Amino acid sequence: MDQRPFFTILTPVYKGRDFLAGCTASVRAQAFGDYEHLLIDDGSPDDSGLLCDQLAAADGRIRAIHQQNAGVTGARNTGIEAARGRYLLFLDQDDRLGPCALEAVAAALKDCGDDLVSWRHHGQWEEMCADPALAVPARYAQADFGRLYCTGTVHYVWTKAFPVDFLQRSGVRFDETIRDGTDDLPFVLAFWRAWFTAHPGGGVRYISQFLYYYEIGNAASVSNRLQPFVPSHLAMFSDLLGDLLGRYRVPPHQAELAFYQCLHTLAYGVYSTPRNRRPALRSRLLGDPRFQDILARMKENRLYSPFYLPFRWGRLGLVAFLFRSYEGRRWWFWHAYRLGLRLLGGDWACPF
Question: Is residue 135 helix, strand or coil?
Answer without folding.
Answer: coil
